[in-house]
Design a protein that fits this description.
- This protein is about 10% helix and about 40% strand.
- It has a 6-stranded antiparallel sheet with strand order 1-4-7-6-9-10, with no helix packed on it.
Length: about 300
C-alpha cells in the first residue's frame, strides 16, 4: 500500500511546505497500524556533497518491515515504531546507503537527519555533479511513479539552444516534433497523436495555448526555470481526460530542496550564425543575439516554522 500526501503548495513564486509523509510497506505488506505508545521518527535526507534534499529516498526499519519515502522536500515520517533500539537504513539511487541505530521510548517523537554520499566523489578533485545528481533524481522519480511516465532532468542537457524547453521535449521517447512554418519544433506529437490532442502542464497546472487551436506552442517557454520534464503516457484516475496522446508536465525548481538558505545563479551566452550559412526566416533576421538568465532562490521560516517558505 502506498499513500502520498501533499507536502508543498506553489502559489505564484511562493512555496509553502507542510509536514507530510510518503509511506509504503516493505516487501508488499501493508504498513503496521499505529498503536498506542509507539514512537515516530522524523527527519530529512540530503546529499552531503551538493547539499540538496533528496526526494524519493527510501527510509526503512528492516527488522520491523516498515518503510517510507521522502517527500518532495526531502523529509520523511516513519511511525509505528515500538519502544527500544532500532536500525534505520536510508538508500538512494547512485549513493551509498547509510545505516544508523537509535533508541526511542513509548510515544516519543524523535528526529534524525541523514546525509548520503558516494565514494566516487573521492576519486578525483574535479567533480561533475550536476548531470549525475539530476539524472539520479529523475530515475528515482520514474521508478517510484504509479503510472507510465518518462522523466528527464534538465541538468543532463547542459546549455540549451535558445534556452528553449522545446529543444529537450522533442528528445523524449514517443515524441516527434511538429515543425511550424518557420521550421521550429514548437509543437509536438505524442505517440502519433496530433499536437491538438496533447496537453502541457506546469507543476500539474494546465497551460492554455496562445494560438487559435488546442495545439500548445513552446516558443515562449524557457528551460532554465525547470528542474525536470515528465512525459505522462498513462493517466491515473485523479487526472483529467483531456489528452489522448499524453501530457508534458514541467516541474519548476523548488528552493525547499536546497540545503543552503540562498542561491543565486546566472549565465550569459551568445548565438551567432555565420553569414554564409542558410537559416530559417526568423533566424535570418537575427543572426546574432545575446542570451541572459538570472535565478534567485531563498528559504525562510514563517509562523514559527523552520524552512517552510520558499521564494524563487
Amino acid at each position: 500500500m502506498k499513500t502520498v500526501l501533499p507536502s508543498a503548495f506553489l502559489v505564484g513564486g511562493l512555496v509553502l511546505a507542510c509536514p507530510a509523509a510518503t509511506a509504503r510497506a516493505a516487501d508488499g505488506a501493508p504498513p503496521a497500524p499505529a498503536a498506542h505508545g509507539t514512537a515516530t521518527l522524523t527527519g530529512s535526507v540530503s546529499n552531503t556533497v551538493t547539499g540538496n534534499l533528496l526526494e524519493g529516498a527510501s527510509v526503512e526499519a528492516p527488522r520491523l518491515g516498515l518503510a517510507t519515502l521522502t517527500d518532495n522536500t526531502g523529509r520523511f515520517v516513519l511511525s509505528g515504531l515500538p519502544a527500544g533500539t532500532h536500525e534505520i537504513v536510508v538508500s538512494y539511487l547512485g549513493l551509498d546507503a547509510a545505516r544508523s541505530q537509535f533508541v526511542v521510548g513509548p510515544g516519543e517523537r524523535a528526529r534524525r537527519d541523514f546525509g548520503l554520499t558516494t565514494g566516487i566523489y573521492q576519486l578525483d578533485a574535479f567533480k561533475v555533479t550536476g548531470e549525475r545528481e539530476g539524472s539520479a533524481a529523475a530515475i528515482t522519480a520514474q521508478r517510484n511513479a504509479d503510472n507510465v511516465k518518462n522523466i528527464i532532468a534538465m541538468d543532463t542537457f547542459g546549455n540549451l539552444p535558445n534556452m528553449s524547453a522545446g529543444e529537450v521535449i522533442v528528445r523524449l521517447p514517443g515524441i516527434a516534433g511538429s515543425p511550424t512554418e518557420e521550421g521550429l519544433n514548437y509543437q509536438f506529437n505524442v505517440r502519433g497523436m496530433s499536437p491538438a490532442l496533447n496537453t502541457v502542464t506546469v507543476d500539474g497546472g494546465l497551460l492554455a495555448s496562445i494560438g487559435t487551436s488546442r495545439a500548445f506552442e513552446l516558443q515562449s517557454v524557457t528551460g532554465t526555470m525547470f528542474e525536470q520534464l515528465e512525459l505522462i503516457k498513462g493517466h491515473t484516475p485523479d487526472k483529467g481526460a483531456d489528452s489522448l496522446g499524453g501530457t508534458i508536465n514541467m516541474r519548476t525548481r523548488s528552493p525547499l530542496t536546497m540545503r543552503e538558505k540562498r542561491r543565486l545563479t546566472y549565465s550569459a551566452t551568445a548565438r551567432i550564425a555565420p553569414a554564409f550559412t542558410e537559416q530559417i526566416p526568423l533566424r535570418e533576421a537575427h543572426r546574432s543575439h545575446p542570451l541572459f538568465t538570472v535565478g534567485y532562490q531563498e528559504v525562510f521560516g514563517v509562523l514559527g516554522g523552520e524552512r517552510n517558505l520558499g521564494v524563487a
